[in-house]
Predict the 3D structure of the following.
Amino acid sequence: MPLVSPSVPATLAQFAAHPKLVAIRHVLQDEPDPAYMLRADFQAGIQALRAFNLAYDILIYDRHLPQAIELVDQHPEQPFVIDHMAKPCIKQRTIEPWARAMREIARRPHVCCKLSGLVTEIGRPHWTVADLRPYVDVVLEAFGPDRVLFGSDWPVCLVACPYARWMEVVRELTARLSPAERAAILGENARRVYRLRDA
């Protein structure tokens, strides 16, 4: 069900009580028009999430960040999570204008960022942690450890590395943080943002 559907509130009412439904995501990266997320009917769909305490995951490429900033500004009470760090151009080894846009969107306290999906964007088999570090450092600096969430991107990550290897990479990239900050990124932030319940 797309968020532009007028049946969004009724559908959410039907499924929102399920304990495993904690967020909604639309694959915005595949929409040909970057302004799709600014449509009035899409905005109405986002607005409907508040009644059910559901987060919204923003799945975009870095080029969509200007529109994403407009989107989150329209909904200051809605929790947002940027998936896969907005997929920076790691393959091309470019960091701007992605870094500038990420620092700007991070100024909104209701927006978090998911540390995931990087190895599949790198586009080559022999990548290193050093290839990823500049991008992760930008996110850690901009959002702070209390608004960065670990994400596995499983099973998609398997095209680039095993899950266990990705965990090792994340631990290495966050090694300079305190134990409490690392624990927040590796689980506690997701528990809070997605309102996860204990098993």
